[in-house]
Amino acid sequence: MSHGTATGLFQAAGIPSIIYGPGRIAEAHRPDESIGRADFAECCTMLRRIIVQHN
């Protein structure tokens, strides 16, 4: 599977960046792409932790 992000551009500009999201990369970017509720909840929990740690 071929895919990419703009993260390299952010890092080149001195902006720390990560790539993170719910689901499995093997199932991503397909016509019927979806994620389960548990994966979505786990992602929300992780994003909350990141926000709290960096505020």
Give a quick summary of the entry.
Helix content is 42%, strand content 0%. The chain has 55 residues and is mainly α.
3D structure, described in words:
This protein is mainly α and 55 residues long. It contains two helices and no strands. It has helices at residues 7-12, 37-53. The mean pLDDT is 87.
* Poorly predicted spans: none
Shape: flat
Number of helices: 2
Biggest beta sheet summary: none
Please estimate the helix content.
40-55%
Helix-and-strand structural type = mainly alpha
Listing every helix as H and every strand as E from the N terminus to the C terminus, the arrangement reads HH
Rg computed from alpha carbons, rounded to a whole number of angstroms: 14 Å
How many β-strand runs?
0
Task: Looking at this protein, list some descriptive labels.
single chain, mainly alpha, 2 helices, 55 residues
Write the layout of secondary structure elements.
Blueprint: H1 7-12, H2 37-53
